[in-house]
Design goal:
Distance between the termini: 49 Å
Mean pLDDT: 90
Low-confidence stretches: 67-71
CATH class of the largest domain: Alpha Beta
Number of helices: 6
Order of helices and strands: EHHEEEEEHEHEEEEEEHEEHE
Helix content: 10-25%
Number of domains: 3
CATH superfamily of the largest domain: Pseudouridine synthase
Structural class: alpha+beta
CATH architecture of the largest domain: 2-Layer Sandwich
Strand content: 25-35%
Length: 308
């Protein structure tokens, strides 16, 4: 099980490898290896520099790390990988809902990464050992477009674009209630929820987070709104948390709103519908779109009395 700790004042300024070793009881060398493999997260982002100094108040996530070598990923051709684009540098995948992107606590097989390795074995040497090729993630219940790097150079270039907010990520989200403004922007810091370590929330002292949205449709019965959301940052559960915070949780998102009728949907109505980025070697503008999968399209078709 993952260890999740807030860095105490007593460890402020200490090296990350020493902190991981102190908190877990593993050797300093094993802690360093785990950091270099991209397994250690600070505020939900992997940190690859073992000498990095931690700061009091940061959220540290450490997976179960036995002294044995890191898990060796085995390619799995049974995992669904729907490829919408591939070239020598980049793969764009249309992920189905229910598939976990990469291994983590309790999920060491059957992930998207296992399927990608079966089709593109060269990806194994790109990026962190347990997240080869992965530049950004989608939640298990979120469907849609995801970019994967085939080379180390492409991985670095795409990660830089993501960090510089130059990747165009747009999601379709159906929410409860009528969102009155035709467009808007939510700016609210996100951190771990005090009510549960697997949930996120808008919290004082959380990480900066910004989500822009545009209304694409409204329905009276039941009162729902279809939004196109554009990520300006990429925090864990960002869209889900921000929309819940303004009183419009996602249809189907029982984790953040268990009191409403979710129209029989067993996962959040959230689909990564558009992905745009600059190709890392050619410099060409790349853009891809993905239609709503059948389960989400069925919910949308069942809504009545659209509002103008």
């Amino acid at each position: 099980m993952d260890l999740q700790e807030t860095v105490p004042v007593a460890l402020d300024g200490e090296r990350l490898d020493r902190v991981v070793s102190l908190l877990t009881g593993i050797s300093r060398s094993r802690a360093s290896a785990a950091i270099e493999e991209g397994l250690i997260l600070i505020d939900d982002e992997p940190v690859l520099i073992r000498s990095r100094r931690v700061q009091a108040g940061e959220e540290l996530t450490v997976p179960d790390l036995p002294e044995s070598e890191a898990l060796r990923l085995q390619p799995d051709p049974e995992v669904e990988v729907s490829v919408v684009h591939e070239d020598a540098e980049v793969i764009v995948v249309d992920k189905a809902a229910g598939i976990i992107v990469h291994p983590g606590a309790g999920h060491d097989e059957g992930t998207l990464v296992h399927g990608i390795l079966a089709r593109y074995p060269e990806v194994a040497s790109v990026g962190p050992a347990l997240r080869p090729g992965i530049v950004h993630r989608l939640d298990r219940g979120t469907s849609g477009l995801l970019m994967v790097a085939r080379t180390a150079t492409a991985h670095a270039a795409l990660a830089r674009q993501l960090s510089d907010r130059r990747v165009d990520r747009r999601y379709l989200a159906l929410v409860h209630g009528c969102v009155e403004a035709d467009e808007g922007r939510i700016e609210a810091p996100i951190g771990r929820s005090p009510r549960g370590r697997t949930r996120m929330a808008v919290v004082v002292g959380g990480r900066e987070a910004r989500t822009a949205y545009t209304v694409r449709g409204r329905w009276e019965r039941p009162g729902t709104t279809l939004l196109e959301c554009r990520l300006e940052t990429g925090r864990t559960h960002q869209i889900r948390v921000h929309l819940t915070a303004i009183g419009h949780p996602l249809v189907g998102d029982a984790a953040y709103d268990s009191s409403r009728d979710h129209h029989g949907l067993g996962r959040p109505f959230l689909h990564a519908a558009h992905l745009g980025f600059v190709h890392p070697s050619s410099g060409a503008e790349m853009a891809f779109d993905s239609s709503l999968p059948a389960d989400l399209a069925t919910v949308l078709a069942g809504l009545a009395h659209p509002l103008v």
